[in-house]
Each structure stands twice: as structure tokens, then as C-alpha cells.
Amino acid sequence: MTTRPRTTKTTVPALVLLKAAAEAAQSKKAVDIVGLDLTQLQGVADYFLICSGQSEPQVKAITEAVEEKLRLAGAKPWHVEGLSRRWMLLDYVDVVVHVFHEQTREYYLLERLWGDAGSVDLGLD
Q: What distance, in Å, lies between the first and last C-alpha atoms of the chain?
């Protein structure tokens, strides 16, 4: 069993990574972009970014844009899952990015599951 690192090797603050990921997702026309603040909860990360694409190719494009933008910021994902292109997860330890196909997001309802989390103003238009 692989243990989860306590933090990533990047010096970029988690909130900065979250907002950069949101900007990258928006650049690929992601919909319903939501930031959740898990810092006050016993969560698996400090922040979640949840967004949706309207097709599997769009989910892939959003994921690739997020990975590229965060790589340029000096962050590398600790773990990536979701080769089905219906739900991609990019785990940066302090920030976890969930890119869903719209129908898959409706099924899992992560926002409701983490309903005690506060929302984050992502500064998007």
C-alpha cells in the first residue's frame, strides 16, 4: 500500500494551485466549476476543484489543460486516475481536481457528499 505524502514538492500554495486549475478548466469551456475548502474537515486534501465537460473529448481536454498549467507552475500530480474519460482525478495532495462528464457528476454528487465544506471564490468571470 502506498502512503499518501503529506504535501507535494511544490512551493506553490494550495489555493494558488486551485485557482490556476480553475482557470485552465475554464479555458477549455468546463461548466459548473466549483472550489471546495476542506481545510476545516478531516478530508483527504485541503481543496477540491470540481468541474464538468459535456463530452469525453472535452473531459480529456480539460484534464490536459489543468495538468499543463499546474506543471508550468511547478506542480506535478502525485496520482492520476480515470482513463475512462468520464471522471478524471488529478491528485496534487493538497488539491484534488475532479473533471467529470456531466452525467457522471450527477450520479456521484460530490458537492453533496462534501456538503460541510465551504466554497472558494475562484475569481472566475
A: 42
Closest CA to 24 of 90, 106, 93, 116: 90
For residue range 14-38, list pLDDT tens digits in order.
999 999 999 999 999 999 999 999 9
Give the pTM: 0.89
Nearest to 96 by CA among 14, 27, 6: 14
User: In CATH, what number does 18-120 get?
Assistant: 3.30.460.10
C-alpha cell at 65: 489543460
Give the helix/strand (H/E) hosting 27.
helix 14-27
State pLDDT tens for residues 101-112.
999 999 999 989
Q: Are strands 31-37 and 47-53 parallel, antiparallel or unpaired?
A: antiparallel
Please state, in angstroms and rounded to a whole number, the distance separating the CA atoms of residues 97 and 64. 12
Domain extent listing, the chain: 18-120
Three cell numbers, residue 70: 499546474
Q: Residue 37 is placed in which grid cell?
A: 475548502
